[in-house]
Specification:
The protein has about 80 residues and is α+β, with helices and mostly antiparallel strands. The chain has a two-stranded antiparallel ribbon. The longest helix is centred in the last third of the chain and has 19 residues. The N and C termini lie far apart (about 40 Å).
Length: about 80
């Protein structure tokens, strides 16, 4: 754990050891989760992360129908 200080422009420097252990080399995603921030390192090549993610045997029509049914279920829950 590290305690960091914001500079006069509101920036902070993540220590080298932490950046190295998380594989941080470029951009990060910062999410405001209420009482704290969540920092997620982004890959330098986002397409490489998606490799194989879209290998599905269903047709687009079937995938769309599945998504619509899921959206309907979630909408019913919120009522």
């Amino acid at each position: 754990m590290s305690i960091l200080e914001l500079d006069s422009k509101g920036r902070l420097t993540i220590p080298k050891e932490i950046r190295k252990s998380l594989g941080m080399s470029g951009k990060v995603l910062v999410i405001n989760v209420g009482d704290h921030l969540k920092v997620i390192p982004l890959p330098t090549d986002p397409l490489s992360v998606l490799h194989g993610a879209f290998n599905v045997r269903k047709s687009f029509k079937d995938l769309r129908k599945q998504a619509e049914l899921q959206a309907e279920r979630e909408a019913r829950k919120q009522r």
